[in-house]
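Sample pair:
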Amino acid sequence: MLSGLLIVLLPLLLGYLVPVRHAGLMHLINRGVNASVYLILLLMGISLAGLDDLLAELSRMGSQALQLFLVITCANLLALWWLSRRLALRFEHSPIVAGAPTTKLAAMLGSLALVGVVLGGVLLGLGLGWLGGDAVYGHAETLAEWTLYALLALIGCQLRNSGMPLRQILLNRHGLAIAVTVALSSLLGGLAAAPLLDLRWNEGLAMASGFGWYSLSGILVGDQLGPVLGGVAFFNDLARELLAFVLIPLLIRYHAPLAIGYGGATSMDFTLPVIQQHGGVACVPLAVVSGFLLSLLSPPLILFFLTL
């Protein structure tokens, strides 16, 4: 169990130890992360194409993802609503940032494009399987595993060079409170959803530990539990991001912890421009801190629960 956990965590830790001071190199690392994510999602689609009775498996995957998403969302929203009442933060007079870099529509289309990559992988896998036989699917899984190791190393490097020292992050009590609330309520939701999905308790916890980081959760879960459950984890976390784009403009002025927290790990990147645009600059530190902590927590938690 520990050896398997170490093999996957080691690239992440090694990447975290590497300081990057050259902006051009950091840009290449960011591009490498994006390219790795797209490649692994394409390979996930190819692996899905190798399933027997593909349509039935895809239908089951969609049903399980919806159930998991609804249970975790209810747990998150209740816990974050309680936290919003406790903290009583208000940002209605915060200045709005004009011309935020990403519109809601563009961000949502970017998220949905990842679904297109998976579906494209399924179609490609069907064609490759027809030409090369079932061996194609085994090669796709092996390549996805090695790409995962490279991705984890690059992600570790990103986290190390995010510009925010861990000391500064841990001293932001509101951001820390949001991250802890999201993490605990998500895990409770995953535990509650496990029997509904016919999963072991630790598998339910692993599926809930993505905190919106769909590109990583789908990969890690799929590597250990197979492409179907990897797809469930992916679509569950992708749905969180899509709903966050809807909730943030509606709630952030009067329930900032709820709006920021529901974005989960994406609050430090994909949903941050929307948070900034509708909540003002005062919301940015909370979003970055909570998103960073959840991003830091997600990979070890997923791997830990998967190896129990």
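The chain is about 80% helix and 0% strand.
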